[in-house]
Amino acid sequence: MAELEDQIQFAELLSQGVKSLKLHPDYKISRKKSENVSVGQSYVDKIAYQIGVSSNTIKSWIGQMGPKYVPGRIDDGKLFGMIWIIMKSDMDIQWFIRLLETTSLPVLKPALPVWVASCLKKAKMLRKDGSFGAPLDEEIEHVIRRLFHDIPDSKKIALTDHPMTHNLPTRWSGVFIGRRFDLEAIRQWLLSPSPVCLITGWAGMGKTTTALEAAYACVRDSHGDSVRVDADWPIFNCIIWVSADWKGLTFSDFLNTIAYQLGRMEQIDTSINEKRFVVRNALANYSREERVLLVIDSIDTAESEIREFITNLPQGVKVILTSRENLNQTYRDAFREMVTIQLKGLEIAEALDFLSHEVRRHLQTCNSPNKREKIKQLLNISPEIQHQLILATAGNPKAIALSIAYILDDDIPAEQLIQELGKAGYSLLELFEFLFGRTWQRCNEDTRRLWQVLCFFSKPPDEESWATAAGLDVRNFHYAVEQMRAYTLIQPERIEGDLQYLGHQTVVAYGEQHLSENQEFEKEARSRWGRYYVEYLETHLKRKQLNSEYWSYLLGRDLDQMKKEWPNILKVIKWASQTGEKELLIELVTRVSHFLSRVNLPLRIEYGMKAAECANQLENHPLEALFRIDTAGWALMEVNDLDGALQQIETGLKVLEGLTTDHKDVNDLKVWGLALKARLYLKASCLKKAEAILEEIIDTPASPLIQHRVLLVRGDLCFLRRNYEEAIQLYKTANEISKIYGGEKTIEAYFNLGVAYVHCDEFEEAVSSFHNILYDKNKANQIELIYYHYGMAQLLSRKRDHAKALQSIEKAINLIDSWEPTISIRKEVERFSKLIKEL
């Protein structure tokens, strides 16, 4: 849902767009006469029909029914459907940007063709075939060409290396008050050679707000009079904002944000190790020509890898950090010079301005006559009482705002609140405990449920995951969210196209404290949270062709949704492992094992072995054997830990010895365990041992999925014995069998098939096989690229193009270094590289 942050302006702009269609041939009013009655259909009716809403809904959106009927949110698909109808006929890109700026949707300025195209693809409207969906790509391209006159052809719509200006979040308040001297100190630092500025202070002091205002000043977009317009604030061509306020921000998320802002979107799907180097180089290259400002909010909660990364930033990149802790000691050795700004309570004059502004803000948004009267009374309290309130809150902006909300909502005189604040204690921790406690009492039960489960998530939750964990339906969820927003507990924000809900660290911590005291609710909520992500994995990973609780999750579809939610999924897995939730851990590992083979092999090994132990304790021996043989054993072999792999495979096979052979899955697993053991012997150059095992199982009945794997191992044996033509037939047969259950993009199968073709001088077939390694050519995975470049190096060498072969093999080695240095193919690649260099 798109939140309308400026409903009046939104209605005015959308009304302009709708009225532009009034005389359009497709929407012009037509009338038919039936006897003596004139039956008409207005242009608004036609527009409404196209996006699947009533004409009254359109009228409410454009303010025709009055300002109070303009909604607070609109479904993204319907909003972009309306925008699409307007923009394919009229209105320019400036109208589009101004309209989106009135909503919570993210806006890129200057607008890029690829961004506008991606927005229009979200439109849901009636298509010619009678279905509701997005416009055709060629239709969108036509509109993009009209909007961006300098685009000669469709190729220009592709993503480029053009960096974004900034990704600064929306301000929480329209006017920035106070901190004039602190901002001046930041300005002086920006003009100095010092690379890092650290802003520290207690919770609620305004560290984030101050850093954000300084960043906006660097793009000439200041609010309030705290930033002098005539001051020499440096302009930055690229400002990158990263918030670690949620402890789930991973190093990968951090690098993804920088990569995206620098126009290196292709790096988002790559491994952490590769991104680490590529992102730093991208920063270095860009900062040689233009200024770069990196702002990291709540660095004290970030992963250690993020902290390490910023100690090695290239010259020309300025960094603002915010932290509750003073990290001078942490970075003293890393930076020769670091400016530290310690935020304290607002000065009396600034605090009085802030208090007055907060009261007037409540007055502007209040519709209740009784409450408006109370607000006016608060405006007229004596300067002495105002001064006492500021002293009682230690000039803390967050505490002042919460105090005002409490006075107005709880009908308590300011003098009484001041007395109670005095009794609460002398530290800010005790102050927030008091204020949040009062807010907690005012919240209804649904709001409290949402507040308590906010701590479950590693990254800000979306509506579905948060509501499910709290056990709320859609209606109650939105009512509770509105109450949390009214009490300034959360802020909705559009992140990567999805609406997510951010809360201050103090808010999350307070909810977690209440959760720990409500064990029955926590147990129920944790159960709902875990089940939600089990079902999420089924939705986004499960194959329909396979009826298996493990093998049906073989990779075979787009993984974008999985990667977006992975930090929260991993938190569920960690929680289940730490708290002994055996059944949940087994369900989760069963579903993510194959996903982890492309994302993180060490995690696959770690949780595969933990899941095996849980299955053993639950006496689910077939599943224990499966986790040991395939989840852990296979992955250990991939990282070249052959001893560890052999131990897990043999333990799994031993578990299977005590099980009945009548069970089909048990027989399948025995065959695969032995075949995997044979594959291990091949890697150890024990070809005779491998052959003996394969002879033992060659006639054993097995499912197509297991047959596929056994044929690959047999192909590997022929390949190592240089029986390339026989190996080709085995690999091709394996790939044909896999089509029975939807096919598999087994990397080594296509790689070895391609190399076998190279040895047979069948180069076209070899190239085709190497291309088949890449599951999605536009989003190639690191391990896929390793095998692809190594295969192409062998092909080029066979063609005696040694220079290009060397380039290709170097790419493979660099990818290995960045992805998983211990991967089993490393030694082979290095030997081949040495061989080429000697030619």
TrEMBL record:
A single GO BP: defense response to virus
Q: Whereabouts are the TPR repeats? A: 747-780
The residues forming the signal peptide are: none
Q: Which Gene3D superfamilies match?
A: P-loop containing nucleotide triphosphate hydrolases, Tetratricopeptide repeat domain
Q: Which UniProt keywords apply?
A: Repeat, TPR repeat
AAA+ ATPase domain residues are 193-362
Q: Record keywords: Glycoprotein included?
A: no
Please name the InterPro entries in this protein's record.
Answer: AAA+_ATPase, NB-ARC, P-loop_NTPase, TPR-like_helical_dom_sf, TPR_rpt
The UniProt entry's GO CC annotations, sorted and at most eight, read: cytosol
Q: Which PROSITE patterns match?
A: TPR (PS50005)
Molecular function terms, GO-annotated: ADP binding
Pfam families tied to this protein: NB-ARC
- What this protein is called in its record is Transcriptional regulator
Q: Which organism is it from?
A: Bacillus gobiensis
